[in-house]
Amino acid sequence: MELYQLRTFVAVAQERHLTRAAERLHISQPAVSAHIRALEDELAVALFFRTPRGMSLTAAGEALRARALHVLAAADDLQLHARALSGSVAGKVRLAVHVEPRFVRLPELTAALRKRFAEMRCEFRQAMSWEIVREIREGEIDGGFIYGASELPEVRTEHLRDFRLRVVGPASWQQRIDRAGWPEIADLPWIWTPDHCLFSRIAGACFSERGLSPRQAVVADHEAVLCSLVASGVGLTVMIEDEAVEAFRNGAVSLWPESIGTVPLSFAYPARRADDPLVQAVLHCLGTVWDLPAE
């Protein structure tokens, strides 16, 4: 039994889909299937059964999932202690980003890490904030840039800055929204985000305070989809001001004059790995890049 097989098992259990698990693990779908088959053969139990919607855990798979997570966490702890004993800061650090990289100073962070810790190698991926928190909790990544702060004790967050939030729409709607008040904005079609998205909670609260409810035409959970739907004329959505103003100046969107609140940007990392040399190296360089106060 190999650790990569257990990581694949956990990914398929969480994603409930072979293709999504393959994308998450950065391997091919046939490789995912092969890992699962090999693990099932070795354990002599079926871990999944196929459904029209994807993959579902069998009773045995459900029972073994928690143990697989425990084994993976133990393996991570072993690496952590080995690095601490050696006193070296070397190896791969896996980070995820929700925000446009330049808005979180990712190029500057990468340069600082390469200069200060030459033996470290960074691996970046794009994900939504709630996905990043989940992956940190499950031990799949070492940290990430998220909107908001984690409510989980297993995931710590370091506050970096606050973004103002703005309402954007199709570029052709500028005259339509220029003089619109809250009631008119609420009555236009909206491209909303799921309840676990902080943007929807903040925007929803602004409307509720005024006794209004936005007309939700579509719900989408990834920024690329949101931007594409706005560009195609479907409706309004919310963006951080830095991104919204840039898109407005480029003629890609219309921009409502009012702000609808702020959202914090944080760096999240596993609480149990707070003393891990790799995590400490990232936090050190973050402090330099963001000019954070020393603890």
Q: Would you write up a description of this structure?
A:
The protein has 295 residues and is α/β, with parallel strands linked by helices. The chain folds into three domains: 3-81, Arc Repressor Mutant, subunit A (Orthogonal Bundle); 89-161 and 265-290, Periplasmic binding protein-like II (D-Maltodextrin-Binding Protein, domain 2); 163-262, 3-Layer(aba) Sandwich (D-Maltodextrin-Binding Protein, domain 2). Helix content is 47%, strand content 25%. The strands form three sheets. It has a six-stranded mixed β-sheet, sandwiched between helices. Helix 2 (18-25) crosses helix 3 (29-43). The mean pLDDT is 89.
Task: Quickly list its features.
single chain; 295 residues; alpha/beta; Arc Repressor Mutant, subunit A; D-Maltodextrin-Binding Protein, domain 2; six-stranded mixed beta sheet; two-stranded antiparallel ribbon; 12 helices; 10 strands
What's a concise summary of this model?
By secondary structure, the chain is α/β, with parallel strands linked by helices.
